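ping. complex inputs:
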Amino acid sequence: MRQASTILSFETPGRGFVDITRAMAAWLGGSGIEEGLLTLLCRHTSASLLIQENAAREVRTDLAAWFDRLAPEGSHYAHDDEGPDDMPAHLRATLTGVNLQIPVMAGRMALGTWQGIYLAEHRRMPHRRQVAVHLIGQ
Amino acid sequence: MRQASTILSFETPGRGFVDITRAMAAWLGGSGIEEGLLTLLCRHTSASLLIQENAAREVRTDLAAWFDRLAPEGSHYAHDDEGPDDMPAHLRATLTGVNLQIPVMAGRMALGTWQGIYLAEHRRMPHRRQVAVHLIGQ
Amino acid sequence: MRQASTILSFETPGRGFVDITRAMAAWLGGSGIEEGLLTLLCRHTSASLLIQENAAREVRTDLAAWFDRLAPEGSHYAHDDEGPDDMPAHLRATLTGVNLQIPVMAGRMALGTWQGIYLAEHRRMPHRRQVAVHLIGQ
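pong. complex structure:
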């Protein structure tokens, strides 16, 4: 049994979803671990991680509209030092969470056919975001 | 230290909550691992996993009504190829997430007394759903 | 490779957020494990765990107001035996989830600079809450 870990960085183009599935598969492939557990932690409070539909692009359009509805921008927040998109970003990050865990079987992530791993950027501006990655197995 | 993993399948009767606590306890019992970490990943984007109250049935009634309120069916979604219950299902799966991790102590899941593990089906029709399960420990 | 686990108890002063980052760092420090994976499970259905902003206090004020808006108290719940704050507490616990996983690197949790670990109490009254903690690594 052994483990591997790293911090990966991803550039986001402002609000939206960055598919990091391939990047994770590539890192996993280089580890030599065939059976185990992969863990991701987004190291930010206004960006987050989720697993969602990887085919129909409209799902992400609707997801973004839903975030807007559940955690809208507005002047009603106490925390607004960093602009009107900051506090909604914290709320949206809370909604999806910053953690993912994926069993690894036969050298591959045990995702379903339609599942992709997304880094969700909730701020309007582009950011460089870090994801802490841990893998244990054999 | 060793690990075990599998893919378990569960039949859902359409929208609602399937208690999979006993199935997980049974699989854990068969593994021979007494101390460790159990991880579950629902391999779908319109079904999800959550830990909630296992006694009062009304909690799940209220939870279902809350899902209806936060992610209602309607004609306002861009993604509607698979019917009006599809996109709300993706949103509800995002709300609860598809991952769970449960420490294992003295051969049992370290759940609280009132906690059960539920597979939440968010589509109207019955489905067969897969859960990837990983266990590491000794 | 080895593992450690425990059940930690925290007193909550009623509804709000209890910062448990230091308590977790202290327990991790005592384990002697430098590289690994830390898992937390809140053993309750009306309290939960989240990682959020550790600096600006207003973020938690806005987060509390958002919980009130998304899962308000009211007389419309089927489950109300334990008072009007009980069912909203279950919903809020579902929103944030009861699980966290944090990679451990060089003896420290790989959290971002602005991330703190919070135990969210969703009931009005003070409670003693248990968190099951698991650590694996070397």
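The longest strand of chain C covers residues 2-12.
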